[in-house]
Amino acid sequence: MKEKIISKASELFLKLGFKSVTMDDIAGEMCISKKTIYKYFCNKEVLIEESTSMVHRQVHEIIDTIVEKNYNSIHENFEIREMFRDMFKNNIDTSPIYQLKKHYPEIYQNVLSHEIDQCTQYFRANIEKGIRDGLYREDLNIDIYVKFYYTLIFHINETTVSEKEAQQIELEALEYHTRAMATQKGILELEKQLKKITA
Description:
79% helix, DNA binding, TetR family transcriptional regulator, HTH_TetR, Homeodomain-like_sf, DNA-binding
């Protein structure tokens, strides 16, 4: 039952926002009593912590699956962006990350510290792969570019209220990041990926 509650809560939090969803809403959606939820979670904050941990795990499992498909580094980044777009497609209003930072800053900081660690590893591996494949320049300072990119992405999510707008800016940031690193071969691959989005 605990896992079912976390799963339903996560779905509602991502769709409607962390602030607006109440324990009553979750109980109503699941056709259970609020008392049942409180049997497993002493308050909403604990449920939010468990839910964000579950979403975090799911996101990184999907990223690992995409990485295992062994696309080239630029294609890989666009596939991951598509995954995030699908994940938040039902949320066209407030960005969940923005809401989390605003209303539950301690939980947000906790999520952020885990995310930065994992994103740093992923971004580094992606850049190294791109250099090996001749899509990114060999003279890049990898540490600096990793830091640039996660600072850019987290800043967008922290400060953009609308999820739809955040996704649009993230696409621009991905193009900006890729162009800054790309060789001529990389630029051709980038143009190919951008065309697929507008097609």
